[in-house]
Amino acid sequence: MPTAGTIELGGVGYPVVAGTYQRAALPADPPRSGRVEIRDFRGGMRQAVMTDTATGGWEGKAVGPVLGGAGVEPWTTESVHADTIADLPTLTQRAHSVVAGSQVYIGIGRRLYRTGNLTDTSWSSLTAVADMGVGMQITGVANIGDEIICMLGPWADAKKYVPTTATTAVWRSGERASVGIGYQGQLIYAPKTPAYSGNAANLDKLKLSLTRYTGAAATDVRWLDGPIVSMGLFRGQVAIATRSSLFLLGGQPDPGEADDPNTTGDQSRRTEWRGDPEAVFSHGTWTAESDFTFLVGFRGKLWTWLANEVQCWSPEDGAWVRTGLVGTSCYGGVVAAGFLVVSLVTRSGQTETWASDGDGWWRIHVASSASAERVWPVALNGVGNNDLLLFRDGSATYDLYRLVWRSSSLHAYRPSAEWVSSLLDAGDRTAAKSWRTVGATFSLPEIRGNSASTDAVTITLDASFDAGTTWSTVATQTVSSPAARVIDLTGVLPTGSVARWLQLRVSWSSVLDWAPVLTGVWADWTALPQAMARRQWHLAVRCADRQLTPSGAPLAATGRDLSTALWAAWEGNTALTFKDIDHDALPVTRSVSITAIEERVATPADAGRWGESVIRLDLIER
């Protein structure tokens, strides 16, 4: 043991210079506590970590926004219909749809199907109205006047179905189309696209159908900068996506005019499309064949699937903007009842369907098995009091959804639902917190749902400390009256609930025709001190040749060796064992680091030869 007035540092005894020894205490971090809460749901889901500006939550199923995101409730009434259609939508066989007149038309495989009338109050099975023939594959459908154009790719002439006469015929002899859209009473189309062509010829060609002043058919042509992939409508124009760029096409079809025989000179005017595609910008981000699976205008922006995520664009943005919904592949997107609905496969391989209100994403379906994969959403525009149809991969059975409230009996509630919060860290991702009391608030200044309902709805609050891997129930309550406008669900977490992160989950069950509206979740916390009370020392030691060890024997190291070792320990922030001056009375060995060092040499000219110096040290307990 070191003698009185001497310390041992790193196993070496050092004499302390008289009058330089100081020992003090560093206080621990002051205690901190508070409450973290989410009370705004406008951001939807996919908010992984809560920040000062984040709203919404992480995920959930079958919940949607209330009053613009002031709260959330069980959402999207779902029903299953077993149909007998001969053509089955699959991951590779797409369903193409268009609204025409008072029905919705859906092209699947070789056949064109029709729903009931938009005004029908109940759903009936799809009716096959046209057969394109053996080996044919409908690659797109469009509505022009009173005709439904069925595009059959580069292999066959496009065909038209006329609902008023229930007849099918070639649309225009020699005109083939892979993708197209009705616009200004004409068809804007690409005869070949990368997905429906056997070679690279004519992939850049855009064709515009025309009708001459004589009534004869005509066609105008524009050449773009790359293979045409997809088309949609945006701000009263046709949006055209190529593998390289985005174009907007407006203008008008001009039927032309014959020469007036009563005037001199050529007064004729040729039949043409007056207007050219405008190159908006070159994106250069083509990733895979699933890019631009859909291209639709919604909430003042153009939305698509690009580079394995949903992105949107507007002239104000100037380029594609990521929206937070990502995956590995996409199986269609459509606007239905004021929502953009997208079916995709997540990075974990799970098939999911999401809906956006323009502010955030809400998950309305998660496939429980491969046979339940939902593909190619179709907007129903109210047919049978439904807003959305989701096909199942390889099945004639499909699902119908109601997204908007129509009446107390035609509501949009789901029997069960759940909402999961973002990761809550109370503003500090590094400190462990003791989580104590948590709660969920359900409130709305009106009765929502069927005011006469007697349905008993169960609401449950769960908590997780491992990012949703495991959950434990904190509180549950059954509410039987829609008149209960304010409900507080509160629970105390078990002692020892210490973690850096907390997640909360709210679930509803036994929902029939009303449900409490979730308007906030909260949690009380106390941060555990990161820096505990520690000792610190300020002292000076002498480094000299033939330094004595605590046992009185001379140390082999020279004064220069001792000095060099202390400087190296400071530079490397090395942990050193430390025996204090009172070690004889209190035999405790501590671990310290050198936080500051200063060396003074009495005779600088002899320092290198004799190695004798005084070194001032600041030590701190580790």
Structural class from helices and strands? Answer: mainly beta
Note the main sheet.
7 strands, antiparallel
Number of helices: 2
- From the 3D coordinates, which CATH architecture of the domain at 32-75 and 416-527 would you assign? Sandwich
User: CATH first level of the domain at 32-75 and 416-527: which class?
Assistant: Mainly Beta
Helical residue percent band: under 10%
* N-to-C span: 22 Å
Q: Tell me how many strands there are.
A: 49
Q: State the assembly state of the protein chains.
A: single chain
CATH topology of the domain at 32-75 and 416-527: Jelly Rolls
The Rg value, from CA coordinates, equals 37 Å
Uncertain spans: none
Strand order of the largest sheet: 2-1-47-48-49-46-3
The average pLDDT is: 90
CATH superfamily of the domain at 32-75 and 416-527: Galactose-binding domain-like
Description of the molecule:
- There is one protein chain.
- The protein has 622 residues and is mostly beta strands.
- Among the domains are: 6-27 and 533-621, Beta Barrel (Elongation Factor Tu (Ef-tu), domain 3), CATH 2.40.30; 32-75 and 416-527, Jelly Rolls (Sandwich), CATH 2.60.120.260.
- The protein has two helices and 49 strands.
- The strands form twelve sheets. It has a seven-stranded antiparallel beta sheet with strand order 2-1-47-48-49-46-3. Strands 4, 39, 42, 43 and 45 form a five-stranded antiparallel beta sheet that branches.
- Strand 6 (63-66) and strand 7 form a beta hairpin.
- The longest helix has 13 residues, at 559-571.
- The radius of gyration is 37 Å and the shape is elongated.
- It starts with 5 loop residues before the first strand and ends with a strand.
- The model has no long low-confidence stretch (mean pLDDT 90).
